[in-house]
Design goal:
The structure is a homodimer. By secondary structure, chain A is α/β, with parallel strands linked by helices. Chain A contains ten helices and 15 strands. The first copy, chain A, is globular and about 55 Å long. Chain A starts with 14 loop residues before the first strand and ends in an 8-residue tail after the last strand. Chains A and B meet through helix 3, strand 6, helix 4 and helix 10 of A and helix 3, strand 6, helix 4 and helix 10 of B.
Chain lengths: 358, 358
């Protein structure tokens, strides 16, 4: 296998958008462990029981997704049925969390699979559909659950195998956002985010085959997309108030920093480069290298980043979604773990209806 | 569970497009069984060995996907690396066929999951991205393999369990298409198809729980999307030269006809309503109710429909992709099988460069 030169740009480069698509209603729900973490106070809902009264964790996961969709819609005085499209994805085989959740709402639905990069993938599709005038409003939603992911990807959850230091902990939670081109939904002074550009990732595989070490598997893709975004736009890290990667964790985000430095001589500073997988748990929570999962980045963005954006004076933010595209079957057949990362640039602004901005 | 009124329209209705996105290069590859079927002569490639020289059927499936992508690009004098985006999906857990295939080409990639409706889902996303000016060209690709699907969804392939009459046979094959807004790729007189409108489906579940009987599980969704398309556009079956559903098979397509008749008094005639799952195998091929799988509709469309379109004077065609959104885990937990169907309207035209059409 030959490794690509990280950051080299091809025909598929950064897609510039006109900022016509706004994200106006972040909604987040998390499990008890995430609620006890450092960001616990910021989430819309912390459930006390990760079964949510359901008969299986799979059913609990879809209840969380549905709750986040309904909450996001309520925040802009809509019902899910008012949406023209639901874009959703998750980690489970056949993305059953999203498909069965969509059964409970009477709304057109398209399913996505980008592993833990699915949230950013949904933002790109949603923003393009809104800005292009095809659908409005669009709801984007993603979910993951530690207990469903653990038994699907690794071992029976109750087996309680010892987890190596590089392992990450799948976030139990869900997040949803309403995307719309109209500016009627956010109130005066409230924050909204516009989608400004997107860099879709290519699949990068550096032959990592440890299925616990997804941070290392995803790090090259994260560095690649970040460097492609920089090269395409002529920007560097200093042009962003925040770069938030999805779920590289402590090991993966450190590796990404190093790959970016070695390949392009660019330094990512802890001042404005954060990883949601590092933020969401404290080091006392026995999560080893940090958080992961489809919900990790979106609940951190919806719950925490959004709520501190004004205080931290965040304007331009790059969301770098990161995913590992393996399956147990592929790894049993001797395959390594390919990574992918997609970047979406958003700009936070406070709604100012009197200014007559577009 | 309450069943929705089939064909009732909500906020999410038919999306009208401007016909700026053209499909110019259909490519198809199928396995030996499909090659021996009634459409065998129309496919670009019939492989003699469904392992394609690989060490597993999963690896063979991704080789077919890659082959179709390369063939589609070659037909318009491109390489996959010239594409700005690859949209792909398949039936395997974590859509590994698409993810690992994308690793072999240096092109930005977004993964989709719509079960056997994934092809039409990819056409909708691709057409919107091209028409909206976000990406061009876009490659859409889907694949399935009888032997990988059988063991993932049901029983070990070698077990050779007796299959009930309602069972369908997953098509071994892959198809790819290049979507572009420019008209430079097809030669004078060659056919190209424009994407004219799309009706994204909602998830419809009529409580079918027989995991062999996917035709019955998908039929209500097919009827729902078809009736919503008719209601939104004021059209009926006579307005189409052909309505091609994906993989309802003999039983499912008969049920769809009946549901459309009973719910709206509309008759679907065998003259212009066909199902790819019925077309692709002959009744002597021991496929019971017909073909199915992510590849069923796109190889039939790329291989057969496209090549007879001129002879049959096909102008307006409605592609109705149909998918069953279950998983073995969901069904083991007592769930029924939700169906979904997406419709994309396309118009065939012969390239006429001198006419100066847009």
């Amino acid at each position: 296998m030959t490794f690509p030169v990280l950051g080299s740009t091809g025909a598929g480069s950064t897609i510039r958008m006109k900022g016509r698509c706004r994200i106006t209603s972040p909604a987040s729900v998390v499990g008890p462990k995430e609620g006890r973490g450092p960001l616990g106070q910021f989430f819309d809902l912390v459930v006390e029981d990760d079964l949510l009264g359901q008969s299986s964790w799979e059913k609990a996961e879809r209840e969380m997704l549905l709750h986040s969709v309904r909450t996001a819609c309520e925040k802009v005085n809509l019902t899910p049925e008012d949406a023209q499209l639901l874009l959703a994805g998750d980690l489970l085989n056949q993305t059953i969390t999203s498909g069965y959740a969509a059964r409970s709402v009477d709304v057109p639905y398209l399913g996505l699979y980008g592993a833990c990069a699915t949230f950013v993938e949904s933002l790109f599709f949603g923003a393009a559909l809104v800005e292009g005038g095809f659908c409005d409003p669009v709801v984007c939603a993603t979910a993951s659950h530690h207990n469903t992911a653990e038994r699907q990807y690794r071992l029976p959850t109750e087996f309680a195998a010892q987890r190596p230091p590089e392992a990450q902990w799948t976030v139990t939670g869900a997040a949803a956002f309403v995307l719309s081109g109209s500016r009627s939904s956010a109130s005066e002074g409230e924050l909204e985010a516009r989608v400004l550009s997107a860099t879709v990732g290519r699949v990068v595989d550096f032959s990592v085959s440890d299925t616990y070490d997804l941070g290392s598997a995803m790090a090259p893709a994260a560095a690649d997309t970040l460097l492609r975004h920089f090269a395409d736009t002529g920007r560097g890290p200093d042009d962003f108030d925040l770069i938030l990667s999805g779920d590289l964790g402590r090991l993966g985000s450190e590796l990404s920093r190093e790959l970016v430095q070695r390949n392009a001589g660019i330094n990512l500073s802890p001042d404005n480069y954060w990883d949601a997988g590092v933020l969401i748990y404290s080091s006392e929570q026995n999560v080893n290298a940090g958080g992961s999962g489809c919900a990790c980045q979106p609940v951190t963005f919806a719950g925490y980043i959004w709520k501190v954006a004004r205080k931290l004076q965040l304007g331009r933010v790059l969301l770098l979604g990161t995913g590992a595209l393996h399956s147990p079957v592929a790894c049993q057949q001797g395959e390594s773990i390919p990574g992918i990362a997609h970047a979406v640039e958003i700009g936070f602004t406070a709604v100012n209806k009197q200014a007559g901005e577009q």
